[in-house]
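Handout, section B. The chain below has 543 residues.
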Amino acid sequence: MRIASAIHSAAGLWFFILLSLVLFSGTLAVFAPEMDQLIYPEMRLSLPQKGVGKINPGAIYDAVTQAYPGMGITYIDMAAHDRYAPAKTTIIFPDNKRRTVSIDPYTAKIIGEIPDMTVHSFIARMHAVLFQGLFGFYVVNFCGVLLLAITISGLIIYKRFWKSLFKIPRFKRGTRILLGDLHRLIGLWSIGFLLIISLTGSWYFYNFPLAHLGLVPNIIETQPSPHNISQADLDALGPQTPHRQSGAHLISVVLSAYPDMTITGIMPPMNLNMPFVVYGDRDEYLHGKDSNSISINPFTSEIIGANLSEDLSLSQYAFQGMSQLHHGELLPKNWGWPAQMIMKGIWFLCGLGTCFLSVSGLYFSLKRTRQSIKQLGWRKVWHWGKPWGGPMGLFKYINVLVLVALIAGYMHMVSMGQPKPALPQQAFSSQQAGPFNVSLRIKAGPRNDAINPIQPGGRLMVFPNIEGGLFEDARTILIGLTKAKGSSARGVRVKGAEKIAFAPLRLPRQLEGVEIWIELTQWDGTTSRTQWALSSGKNIAPL
């Protein structure tokens, strides 16, 4: 009993600020998407007449590719189970600039662009990682262990707790008694919620960091990944430049094969050997919305692989189910939007209850400390207030450190999102390489802030530009360096869509006589090559 009481008080008091931040941000995260819809007009829809359904999800992809030709289109979230939310995706522009775009899922019309840092993304990053990256993820998961210890010890302390489920708080007996009654009552009615959150949080902690760092056995099998297009598949396309099928057609093929699937997302191919991946659910319970993935060849419309929820192992299913439990997605998705909002309301109220438990628990601890000071004399005041004393002891520094790290992490994230003075770039004029007119643009690579991007031993990012819309006519594009004109060297394969295509290079220590070259192979196997002296680049204004 005393041990349970000590654990209950110490865990809640020593890590008060950490727990409160995680609990409060998690509570706000329940309705964070709805907050975005209230704040940003681009996140609101003009609903069609009753009975009008959403358009073929592939048509949304087609609309985005038409509006942003040649740009990098990332995962498109169809918001399939939310009647009032738009579809959205992140578009990658040259120089890795990104914008989030919302699309009307009923008409495929581009609604507008959304700021990178919305209320939803702010709360999500705070709750998941405390703006601290992977280490912050570890710390947040540790809160699951703390909450589990607090919950179990609280049940041990409160004997025969089930008899007090309907006990009315004593409102006329003073603040201390009222808060104590509310603390116990809210704690009892939140037992189910607390156990779900703490057990799933502890599950996350087992996997990240314990299993991730090799401290315990890894019991989770790797989640299945999409199937890539093989070289044999590319060879089978023939010597002529193949054309990609429309998104609407590809989705129709998938729905013909899996008519019970609700399309929840699309991952377009960013490289030639990547498939067009369609994600969806089939009314499974406690599965993620992307629990099924279908890989399809964008040139031939052939389904080349499928990862279905029915094929998941027990550990893979548990990994997905834990996430659904943690987020309160306990109702079948086909129950509709009203049922989902009721479930969100319950999860939000339970979250507020846990926040109250945290604050009221701190109040009781401080109250007991003040009473002990009065009873034992003023000599205890120094013991309570000195840096290594007080109710929190040395753990007060952990709480202060959490606040400082949170603020510093947020400021760093904001500074990363601010426009920065772009470094000069260099351009290499257009040259003929077989049927292609090719020019290059280079800039300093990661961790290289030199004004001149060409530095001995430095890193470069090379961006080719193929004029005349012939980018798709090149089956492979290699870029490399030679130390002398005419010599050969293994190149780096260009990746990415037409306007964001890039290749990273590492410069040699000696730059004298070095050339940069590009080699393009057509679908019929014809190879063309051209090169520039590295010293011939001309400075240009940054994009």
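Note. The chain is about 40% helix and 20% strand. Compare this with the example in section A.
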